[in-house]
């Protein structure tokens, strides 16, 4: 499963990419507002830091406006994906943008029926929102399972991008459900790395290493410094 960061925090993205495990970035108007910088400036910097797909969202509500905004966004950098909300006008725009060779990410998806329509319109990615679905008493992970099954039934090429991820467990469950991508806040990626038994084991190893006779010199010798 590919891992995307869901943030407009440029420094957090830089640190995530440096780990070697981040494949892309998703942003939205809320995240852009939190960044406190110009939208274009932020998106361009993110697209430069992360070589993978970078989703930047349109804000128009009419198909013509969404298409216009999408064309502008797509010109900013070759790895920018145009993010479009699941609306009737959004589906029209996705169809048009797809025909023009512009990749899209259909967002705010909360039902398998919506996801089916997004795939038929030609979306490159579809983003079901797990956490927000859980918030209304529904099972977000079942939403992902259903979408994955439908896409496999009909060999849709649209990738399932599990969004609104709030914990490492969400990531693991999305991977088990067959999601192509999981997009998450930097905090969740950090939590995925951490485990108390890892910390305990490392502390034990380092303590024992101090008793090895050549512990202080062995790596210097390997590097040819002695």
What would the keywords be for this entry?
single chain; 226 residues; alpha/beta; TIM Barrel; 2 domains; eight-stranded parallel barrel; 12 helices; 8 strands; 54% helix; globular
Plain-language structure description:
The structure is a single chain. The protein has helices at 10-19, 29-35, 39-49, 63-76, 88-99, 112-121, 130-135, 140-154, 168-177, 186-193, 196-209, 218-222; strands at 2-6, 24-26, 54-57, 80-85, 104-109, 125-128, 159-162, 181-184. By secondary structure, it is α/β, with parallel strands linked by helices. The chain folds into two domains: 2-194, TIM Barrel, CATH 3.20.20.70; 195-226, no CATH class. The protein has an eight-stranded parallel β-barrel with strand order 1-2-3-4-5-6-7-8, surrounded by seven helices. Helix 4 crosses helix 5 (88-99) and helix 8 (140-154) runs parallel beside helix 9 (168-177). The longest helix is centred in the middle third of the chain and has 15 residues, at 140-154. The mean pLDDT is 94.
Secondary-structure topology with pairs:
Blueprint: E1 2-6, H1 10-19, E2 24-26, H2 29-35, H3 39-49, E3 54-57, H4 63-76, E4 80-85, H5 88-99, E5 104-109, H6 112-121, E6 125-128, H7 130-135, H8 140-154, E7 159-162, H9 168-177, E8 181-184, H10 186-193, H11 196-209, H12 218-222
Parallel strand pairs: 1-2, 1-8, 2-3, 3-4, 4-5, 5-6, 6-7, 7-8
Helix pairs in contact: 1-3, 4-5, 6-8, 8-9
CATH architecture call of the largest domain: Alpha-Beta Barrel
Helix content, binned percent: 40-55%
Strand fraction: 15-25%
Q: Please tally the β strands and state the result.
A: 8
Name the strands of the widest sheet in spatial order.
1-2-3-4-5-6-7-8
Structural class: alpha/beta
Number of helices: 12
């Amino acid at each position: 499963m590919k891992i995307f960061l869901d943030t407009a925090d440029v420094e957090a993205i830089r640190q995530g990419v440096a780990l070697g495990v981040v494949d892309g970035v998703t942003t939205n108007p809320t995240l852009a507002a939190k960044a406190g910088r110009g939208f274009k400036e932020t998106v361009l910097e993110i697209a430069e830091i992360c070589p993978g797909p970078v989703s930047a969202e349109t804000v128009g509500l009419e198909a013509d406006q969404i298409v216009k905004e999408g064309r502008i966004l797509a010109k900013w950098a070759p790895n920018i994906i145009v993010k479009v909300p699941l609306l009737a006008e959004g589906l029209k725009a996705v169809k048009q943008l797809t025909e023009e060779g512009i990749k899209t990410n259909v967002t705010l998806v909360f039902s398998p029926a919506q996801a089916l329509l997004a795939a038929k319109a030609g979306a490159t990615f579809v983003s079901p929102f797990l956490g927000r679905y859980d918030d209304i008493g529904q099972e977000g992970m079942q939403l992902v399972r259903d979408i994955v099954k439908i896409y496999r039934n009909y060999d849709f090429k649209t990738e399932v991008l599990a969004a609104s991820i709030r914990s490492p467990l969400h990531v693991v469950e999305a991977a088990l459900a067959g999601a192509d991508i999981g997009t998450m806040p930097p905090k969740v990626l950090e939590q995925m790395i951490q485990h108390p038994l890892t910390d305990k084991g490392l502390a034990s190893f380092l303590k024992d290493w101090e008793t090895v006779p050549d512990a202080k010199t062995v790596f210097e010798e390997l590097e040819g410094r002695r």
